[in-house]
Amino acid sequence: MSTILIADDEARIRRLVSDFLKRDGHTIVEAADGKEALNILENRRPGLDMAIMDVMMPGLSGSDACMQVREFSNVPIIMLTARSEDSDKLMGFACGADDYVTKPFNILELKARIRALLRRAAGNGQQGQARQRTPLLTVGDLSLDTEQRVAIRDGKTIDLTAKEYDLIELLMKNPRRVYSRESLM
Q1: For the range 13-18, what are the long-range contacts, defined as Cβ-Cβ under 8 Å and sequence gap of 24 or more?
Q2: Across the chain, which distance is largest between two alpha carbons, in Å?
Q3: Which of 9, 31, 78, 107 has the fewest beta carbons under 10 Å from its own?
Q4: pLDDT in tens, 26-57
Q5: Where are the beta strands (DSSP E) in the chain?
Q6: Distance (Å, whole) CA 8 – CA 54
Q7: pTM
């Protein structure tokens, strides 16, 4: 089966998810905060097949950890959180999450989402390793190098903050979609 990281500051949640996934034959690695999760993801790749991270963890949030992970890996990530507003979900996806599950959650639904993401990653030859990404995303005369996380216009690199880059990438990947200021924040 697969090796899955469960990162949540609530030991009860980690234990619950861990117990259910172990019954399905998965190997579980646990982290109690975002910094520990990021460290595990950096040091165990390509040994991890998926990460499940709580958004609100002490130290480094799950969202920030997810953004940092996306700088070196495309391991499937499910954000697990009590925040259920549409703007929170959109921010989770903008940070690089592949799926978003709100607490309280149905463990059978979570397991189904895990299976679907693992199946998709395995089908693309991506399980356990950084996925091959399309290096350039282009709209008009603006291109984003998604591997290097840089914007390019007329052959020149444009200096952007991480948030600016994420915002431009979100908008380029979702043309003709309208976002409110609140959902983007």
Answers
A1: 13/54, 13/80, 13/103, 16/107, 17/52, 17/80, 17/107, 17/110
A2: 54
A3: 107
A4: 999 999 998 999 999 888 756 788 999 998 88
A5: 3-7, 27-31, 50-54, 77-81, 99-102, 136-139, 142-145, 150-153, 156-158
A6: 5
A7: 0.65
